[in-house]
Write a structure and sequence with these properties.
- Keywords: Cytoplasm, Translation regulation.
- Belongs to the HPF/YfiA ribosome-associated protein family. Long HPF subfamily.
- Pfam families: Ribosom_S30AE_C, Ribosomal_S30AE.
- One of its GO terms (molecular function) is ribosomal small subunit binding.
- It is globular and about 55 Å long.
- It is 31% helix and 38% strand.
- It has a 5-stranded mixed β-sheet with strand order 5-6-7-8-9.
- α1 packs parallel to α2.
- The chain is of the alpha+beta class and 190 residues long.
Length: 190
């Protein structure tokens, strides 16, 4: 597995990097099988250290976790615990999807924009939003079950994906009532 362990305005020593690799190798060995790469970023927010980890699995799914603590090792350990809980919860589903899928998840590219927040102070002269940033976003081709699992693994409130049973874009999202919603525009085209 490839590792990218960095610190934002923090010096990351060899001992911490070794600890991160050892712990993640152990977790991935138990639950994920064949991860491809991991990014771990340490930063500092006020008096706390923040650890954010993203692991890309060979199935095409991504697991993410984030934790804070007053000590840098404790921040990583909290992040690793969250990652382990996620992967333990989805181990059977990850294994089933991986065995059913002969090739990694296909990923398409799309543009993603960040729009300026509307402060509501005055009526805008035109209805065009102000674009603050433009990025490239990955849109995976997944089954609905895989999309729900990916959304939950990433801790995201919504996931846009290309449905593998059709050519259209679909959306899964967390509803306020705790259930998961699924938008399939192709289902209404008949």
């Amino acid at each position: 597995m490839r590792y990218q362990i960095t610190g934002m305005h923090i010096d990351i020593g060899d001992a911490l990097q070794t600890h991160v690799r050892t712990e993640l190798d152990e977790i991935m060995g138990k639950y994920a099988g064949r991860p491809t790469d991991a990014q771990v970023v340490f930063s500092k927010a006020a008096h706390e250290y923040v650890c954010e980890a993203t692991i890309h699995l060979s199935t095409g799914l991504t697991a993410q976790a984030k934790a804070k603590a007053t000590e840098i090792y404790a921040a990583f350990d909290g992040c690793a615990d969250k990652m382990e809980k996620q992967l333990r919860r989805y181990k059977r589903r990850l294994k089933d999807h991986h065995q059913a899928r002969s090739a990694p998840v296909e990923v398409g590219a799309a543009s993603s924009y960040i729009l300026a927040a509307d402060d509501g102070a005055e009526e805008p002269a035109e209805l065009q939003p102000v674009i603050v940033a433009e990025m490239e976003t990955r849109i995976p081709t997944l089954s609905v079950g895989e999309a729900v699992m990916q959304m939950e693994l990433a801790g995201a409130p919504v996931l846009v994906f290309k449905n593998e049973k059709g050519d259209g874009l679909n959306v899964v999202y967390k509803r306020d009532d705790g259930n998961v919603g699924w938008i399939d525009p192709a289902a209404q085209s008949g």
